[in-house]
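hey m, so remember when u said the tokens were messed up on ur end? i reran from scratch. heres the input so u can diff it against urs
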Amino acid sequence: MSEPAAQPIDSPEESVSVHYDTRLPELSRWRRMQIPAIAWLVYTAIRTIGPTLRLEVLGWQHAERAYSRGEHLIGAFWHRCIFCATWWWRNRGVVVMNTTNFDGQWTRKVIERLGFGTAQGSSSRGGLKGLVVMAQRLKEGHDVAFTIDGPRGPRYVAKPGPVMLARKSGQPIFLFHVGVERALTFEKSWDLFQVPHFFSRAIAVVAPTIYVPPDASRELMEQKHAEMQASLEKVRDVAESWFALSDEERQRIRAEWNK
């Protein structure tokens, strides 16, 4: 899963070939054979570990308020917590932007089995076409989502796709992070990807929604992007530090985030 970043455009022809190109890349026979095998392993891991997680959610009232107004969410979260986020949002028809490269092809098989839809595109190829698909899915009544620093980083640097989509659709940006008490962290991966241990406690922290007016200027778009970046950093800080806090401190933060 991934989402689009602004890229310099040298010509209209380049714009079409890069920003709207969602053709699958050529892969070797060996790589094509790996796709179903990896997808099966990852799906099995999520379906096996996911039901054992003990997940608490802070700030869910922000989603409830949006839903009560008939709105649909433009979700954004860091790539690091994609395992837990996928389990939490399974079987809700959420449409996610998904890269067409090798990783994206097996990822698509996993998430579609878990009840997600996909819009093909990434920060390097097909991003604008992916945004068009996501805007249409919002109109049809679906939530959508981005792994905001995907597909390959830089880690914890938000790309502008959700702000662009919020301006086009009028729907709110929904930001969250999931922290876990015990997990296997892939220290050599660009995103410090985490796979939670069986029966681990987990905490999802949700930020207040962000709205972008349809007539937003470039300056306002940049401000909204900065606001999104700051909110994502804040929910990550709370979620990642949660299980090191005292019970009293956690209770104080619950009261703050759930009001």
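this time it looks ok to me. The radius of gyration is 18 Å. if urs says something different then somethings off w ur setup not the seq
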